[in-house]
Amino acid sequence: MSDVNSRVTLLNDPSVSRFVFSPPNPYTLKDAIERNIISVKDAQESLDHWIRSFGSGDSSAKLRDGAQSTGRPKGCPFKTIRLIHEDGSEEFVGELEVFRESGFIEIVDKVERQAAVKANLDRQAGDDEIVWTMFFLLLPTFAGQGLITRALRTLFDTFLLPRHLLNVHHILSYAFTDNFGSRRVHEKLGFREVKKDWVEMREDRGGGMREEWVFEWKK
């Protein structure tokens, strides 16, 4: 629960809030607490999944052999970026999440979109066909230092790409077309812009339609 106040600060900062699609606006402490409970639960379920998969027998041999786990983990359990100071204290910097795509907002037909969501969520762990998505947010005081790019590269190498973990092959990611900082991060990580699309905004975020980039990464 230590990050809830930091998340309230993050999501109510005008330079961050203007680039966010879904959280309530303004973002309250109650919103942050409710979100934290769900996030911790999802992260624990994902960790438990890998503990069950590799916790019996010679788990080290399984990892060496590239064995894949089974089940349907929702995504990467590591979601918070922290700065560790020389005295050992930690400071909240921002957050990032990588999880199974459950929106497919680029699919116009509702029935087709629902079918795509169900198929993606039903796929077993390690399936090359799973489509993932991600988002990242950073406190403005830490912007321009390459922290998001470094954090995501580390996550790619240690958790997203290994076959015995998420085995990510395909990511779709989104950013509003005035969010040039996000675009630079995507480009540095090897994503390419595949299209522009329009999304309908929540009323508490101004309503109307807003243009976004759709980025894609494939292994």
Number of strands: 6
**Class inferred from helices and paired strands:** alpha+beta
Q: Please mark out the parts with pLDDT under 50 across 5 or more consecutive residues, or reply none.
A: 57-69
Major sheet attributes:
6 strands, mixed
- Helix percentage: 25-40%
Q: Please compute the radius of gyration using only Cα atoms.
A: 18 Å
End-to-end distance: 35 Å
Number of helical stretches of at least 4 residues: 7
Shape: globular
How would you spell out the order of helices and strands?
HHHHEEHEHEHEE
Strand content: 15-25%
Mean pLDDT: 88
Widest sheet: strand ordering: 1-2-3-4-6-5
Summarize the helices and strands and which ones pair or pack.
Elements (H helix, E strand, L loop, with lengths): L3 H9 L1 H4 L11 H26 L4 H6 L15 E5 L5 E11 L9 H13 L9 E7 L8 H14 L9 E7 L3 H9 L3 E9 L8 E10 L1
Parallel strand pairs: 3-4
Antiparallel strand pairs: 1-2, 2-3, 4-6, 5-6
Helix pairs in contact: 1-3
Give the tags.
219 residues, six-stranded mixed β-sheet, 37% helix
Task: Kindly describe this structure.
- The chain is of the alpha+beta class.
- Helix content is 37%, strand content 22%.
- The chain contains seven helices and six strands.
- The chain has helices spanning 4-12, 14-17, 29-54, 59-64, 110-122, 147-160, 180-188, and strands at residues 80-84, 90-100, 132-138, 170-176, 192-200, 209-218.
- A six-stranded mixed sheet has the order 1-2-3-4-6-5, sandwiched between helices.
- A hairpin with a 5-residue loop joins strand 1 (80-84) and strand 2.
- The longest helix is centred in the first third of the chain and has 26 residues, at 29-54.
